[in-house]
Amino acid sequence: MGRGPFGQRPCGTFDEGVTRPSHIAYLEPSPRRVRVTLAGQTIADTRRAALLYETGYLPAYYFPEADVRTDLLEPSDRTRESPVLGRARSWSVRVGERVADNAAFGWWEPPLTAPPVAGLVTFVFDEMDTWYEEDERILGHPNDPYHRVDIRSSSRNIRLSHAGAVIAESSRPLLLFETGLLPRYYLPADDVTAELVPSDAHSRCPYKGVPSYWSVRTGDELLTDLVWSYLTPRPEAIAIKGALAFFDERLDLDIDGERQPRHDTPWSRPEFLRSNPRPPMRD
To answer: Pairing relation of β-strands 221-229 and 245-246?
Structure first.
């Protein structure tokens, strides 16, 4: 996805002799035990999971039919189309009175050129209550084994402003480099001068955890859902605990005194976060 080599907007350049496919699907076995639950019932439990990558989609776990509670699946009229996988068969998942509509699907008759997805079932991640890799809960979507998050301390001067008003400035930022995404600058809370207004926006990241959000009040203007922080990050992201990051594509960003171009990302639009929210966490 995003700026990765086969994403919608790769940040690098291929050899001129390479024809980059417009849409690809890639399936590989996973060595991890994977479980899914809904309403207190285990819906799928497998040591034979496969991870599907498809252009424009987050990675998804697929389960052999034999490792799925098919007695809890009810046929659905919903169809899904893929230029490389064909047409999917869909089901709703029912546990007692709880129904997750159109929450399961599989590619039962894929083209001969497709990866071996026939007979595998997947679930819409956010429609299920909990997902586990081994005995650890995962958030947001399956972890991509080819995805990295590197956090580096820096002495670069980071200055964020809006309409001439400085919002934050720091020479002790943490730079977070995440595969396929723009770098993010996490600043100590003491280096943020703008008024922060708590927000009820929410999201989840499988690599960093569950962030809290704030809007920024500057003059008579409220910049909604502009700031986030991981107050209880996952262990691999503990370095950014309590530091504040900004959707700097919505601000003027100067690094060591040099104005940076504004990148066009989904988060350039203030309404994107709320139009694509993650549901609140379920126990």
So the answer is: antiparallel
